[in-house]
Specification:
α1 (6-17) packs across α2 (24-31). The chain has helices spanning 6-17, 24-31, 40-52, 119-122, and strands at residues 56-59, 67-70, 77-81, 87-90, 113-116. Strands 4-3-5 form a three-stranded mixed sheet, with no helix packed on it. The protein has two domains: 6-70, Arc Repressor Mutant, subunit A, CATH 1.10.10.10; 77-122, Dna Ligase, domain 1. By secondary structure, it is an alpha+beta fold. The protein is globular. The mean pLDDT is 87. β3 (77-81) and β4 (87-90) form a beta hairpin. 15% of the residues are buried. Bound molecules: zinc ion. Zinc ion is lined by residues 81, 83-84, 86, 117-118, 120-121. Zinc ion (ZN) is lined by residues 81, 83-84, 86, 117-118, 120-121.
Length: 125
Amino acid sequence: MIRRTRQREAIEEVFQASRRPLAPGEVHEAALPAYPGLGLRTVYRQLKDMVDEGLIVGVDYPGQPLRYEWVSEKDHAHFICRRCRRVYDLEVDVPDVEITAPRGFTVMGQETVFYGLCPECGEGS
Ligand SMILES: [Zn+2]
């Protein structure tokens, strides 16, 4: 039986409300108003549990902190802002690319990443 604590609910709500993958620090900051006193270490522990339960997955890009996002059934692309480095979900159709992998390689998935400026960074700058 999984005991859903209030702190866990606060963290899950952050993910459900968010439109982008979040680093533990970002989750912590966003969950604090709903759960004052929430510790960063608790956030890390809850995130690990949520990964184990298959609720969220890690989003890992080179030079970026490890982020997490709600597991979605729909393929989507990610967008990385060159300026603020935040990662966004892009609700666009991702083309399926058929490749013939070299011998010995097993392809298990594909990810599409776009780079540029997010609305906050792109406007008036
Ligand atoms: Zn930005």
